[in-house]
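WARN no homologs supplied; continuing
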Amino acid sequence: MREIEPDVVMYGTIVNGLRRTGNTIRAVSLLRIMEEGSCKPNNVVYNTVIDSLCKDRMMDDALKLFSKMNEQGIRQDVVTYTSLIHGLCNFGRWKEATRMFREMLDRGIAPNVRMYSVLLDACTKEGKMKEAEGVLGVMIQRGVDPNVVTYSTVMDGYCLQGHIDEAMRVFNTMVERGVHPNVFSYTILINGYCKKMKMDEAMHLFQEMPPRELQPNTETFNAMLQGLFRSSRCGAAQELFNEMQAVGIIPNSQTYGILLDGLCKNGHISEALSLFHIMERNGLDLNVVMYNILIDAFCKDKKLHTARALFSNLSSMGLDPDFKTYTMMIQGLCEEGLLLEAKELFVKMEHNGCLPNDVTYNTIIRGFIGQHKCYEALILIEEMVQRGFSADASSCSLIVDILSTKGQDPALREVIKKFMPKDSHGMHDVE
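OK structure emitted
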């Protein structure tokens, strides 16, 4: 039988498959085989490998391949440039991305909607909204119609900057130009209004969706729930949560996190704990973030026994406490004057592979200082300094108080000098 020699289409299909499965190195190897063999790669194969390299954050390799295309006279198109410009923007290499975009225009390659969306996404993530509006203007001038994704990207950029009125202006422009908003567009605006605590406007948009045959999704409900809890409208939030389930939208872990956090921050910690137990009974996935919300609430409410019980329950659920969990428990113990237990937990934290950070150190140091255990605090201060951490504002003010009463102790002064930032207020008073 005669062997069938793979053609460029077959090679291209394999390279594309390798790209989709994340096998970039194998895709590059196959490209090299093609370059050395009789079946030379075309621009489609090069584009596929370049895109794969860019997505794998191997930008320098992608740029080398781009240069090789030039050397071999292989045509580069809008797909080639889009992958490279997107990759450069993701790395913050704006000058190179701009230069490449201009080069593309100079070569008579017309940008498409995908290219403009890449540029808009990069501008909005960097908060460069003037530039984003400029890109949108150029796009319209060149006869490329912005789509719902394009407009939504600009809206999201304005919302991230807190400019909800500008986002609404873009939304209205989109509608006027005959582009129909989708669920994502509405969710961006609803989230923006909720963050600004403008719940009437958010609710108006939310209620506008069903008549437009748009079903709010989990993210839409989550945004509304968070806004209602932040506005202390707990009853309305509970009703919305019930409505969410009634229309068949399944709450996710973020939804339950919002409910627990919202109930706790509005003083309904017993209800939050009841909800948590219902979640346990229903076999829902509980994560350390949910435990942290409750532990923090019960520590602040001086109900340390409940916080302890939740903390102890973590291991039985196969969860590891993180530095926030330990820090909250240490603070709760310190505030109850249980310094020995707090110190034991602090030591246990590191033994369990969870290294304390500057927040944890400051928390336990303040606990010891607050109970006038200054020399015990200094041992921790020395350890903290050796690890490259420094005092926060609360610790500094407490340490200034120590200096004012025990400033004559040379050993104390030397250690505190290491601990306190050089420009801290109060240091000059004890020099």
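The CA atoms of residues 122 and 202 lie 27 Å apart.
OK
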